[in-house]
Specification:
It is a single chain. The chain is of the alpha/beta class and 527 residues long. The chain folds into three domains: 244 residues, 3-Layer(aba) Sandwich (Aldehyde Dehydrogenase, Chain A, domain 1), CATH 3.40.605.10; 196 residues, Aldehyde Dehydrogenase, Chain A, domain 2 (3-Layer(aba) Sandwich), CATH 3.40.309; 29 residues. It has a seven-stranded mixed beta sheet, sandwiched between helices. A six-stranded mixed beta sheet has the order 7-6-5-8-9-17, sandwiched between helices. A three-stranded antiparallel beta sheet has the order 3-4-18, with no helix packed on it. Strand 5, helix 6 and strand 6 form a beta-alpha-beta unit. The N and C termini lie far apart (58 Å). The protein binds NADPH dihydro-nicotinamide-adenine-dinucleotide phosphate (NDP). NADPH dihydro-nicotinamide-adenine-dinucleotide phosphate binds next to helix 8 and helix 9.
Length: 527
Amino acid sequence: MSSPAGARRRAGERCVTLADRVDAAAAESIAVRSPPTDEVIAQVPDCSRDDVETIVDRARAAQTTWTEWPVEKRVAVLDRFCDSLLEHRRDLLDLIQLETGKPRHNAVEELLDAVGTCTYYVDTAPKLVESERRSGAFPAITDARVHYEPVGVVGVISPWNYPFNLSLTDAIPALAAGNAVVCKPDERTPFATLFAASLLEAAGAPPGLFAVATGRGETTGPALVDAVDHISFTGGTETGRAVAERAGQNLIDCSLELGGKNPFIVLDDANISAAVRGAVAGAFANAGQLCLAPERIYVHESVYEPFLAELCSATESLSIGFEFGYGPDVGSMIDGDHVDRVDGYVQEAIDDGASCHVGGRRRPDVGPHFYEPTILTGVDPDSRIACEETFGPVVSVTPVKDAATAIDMATNTTYGLNGSVWTTDLGRGRHVATSLDCGTVCINDPYLVGWAALDAPMGGVGDSGLGRRHGPEGLRRYLESRTIATSRIGPFVSPSIVPMGLYARALVGSARLQRRLTRLKRRLSPR
Ligand code: NDP
């Protein structure tokens, strides 16, 4: 492993080269800063509406070649791309760390997620895009086939917290399905996505097929929504609403992965040490800047005291700092505005009577945007910190008298992204899980076991989003279905020699017969 200074210098030089890849005549540029030091890494173009249109036009041209390739040839490119992600992992991890300030182990999560997603869709895409035979209107004399076509150009708008994998986890299935992708990463974290675009091209993708339009959310974002055929958005709920509204105006489909206020329920029979390990790993991963992170912990009153004591002691022992390479447990937050926001929530909760057991402090001695992992109790259930997503290293702990109360409190929210249930009785865990109104619920794990189940759909309900990523659903959202139905006996109109009344009676008789046959089939092979 090279020296930290060497890693920083090399990653910085790579960023300058990557910025040149953006196909833009933009007059304006954006200075991207490294969160742990606040130093400027490099400038990227602030793409105008014209720039976005040019990039999307180029992607559209590349897509016409890509979609003509057999799916096996397309996934072979993605397979090589996946190999190259592993091959270039050191450079990639340095880049992710430089632009996010996260610990290396959280950067590894990004790499592994992209590799897992690629491996999954390389394997499954050929089957998912195959045309299918469905039942025709009338057995034997008609048939129906469904063909799946790529929608065209998919726009991916991604946030800063996991910039690499949240761009790729939506882009890879879109590409495998035969689409082009234009990605707008967050203006604070464009480089890992630009690196991915360069590696994909080196793996054999037509130039411009996976393009990056750097720029600001309020200008580049809407321009992208206006130019593409599907928009896949990950970010905050309010921005998601604006994106959905615009997609609606343009009559294009959208998938939205939004925020959460994720509950974590510890039942009376839980393994307390395992639950504490899960709470620390979940709540403080990436300094709590993780959409799936638990923010509200409900603990059965019989185990509340030992759980809280062990949680506080495990949290106090976390190290804070930044290093290229495997170092501190908790890294930097993204910027000063976000630290101010999180600290504002914490101080307001304390002013309203909450107790702060651990943390609750900025750490300017470590770097400009560091904040201590924080544990609060006695939080007012109607306060902002109890109801709104904090998106920082802060968790509240509340005792509950039974599982039903925990479920009531957990579901008292407009969000529904991810829940977590801790118990040694898995049947009981599944029962509680089905009562939580969330897109994903993990039993005896904070989030990873759900996220990493790449064959299963993932997404939110309510204010947490629309649509699903991962699994077959994650690819099919990027396909348009076209049904081709055939009649083997000519048109279904009344033959001129048969009176209309007789023809209508024959059709009704045939509908009756079909209903009888369907019932018989159900009786012979019940579910
Ligand atoms: P934002 O919604 O502010 O930004 C997300 C992306 O949208 C950025 O690229 C941003 O660009 C862009 N954007 C901003 N305004 C517009 C607009 N009007 N039209 C189109 N695009 C726009 O999210 P945050 O930065 O606050 O990111 C954190 C949020 O993301 C949290 O709420 C978190 O829960 C959520 N998230 C959800 C995940 C999930 O899978 N459900 C995963 C990770 C995060 P720019 O910043 O450059 O202006």
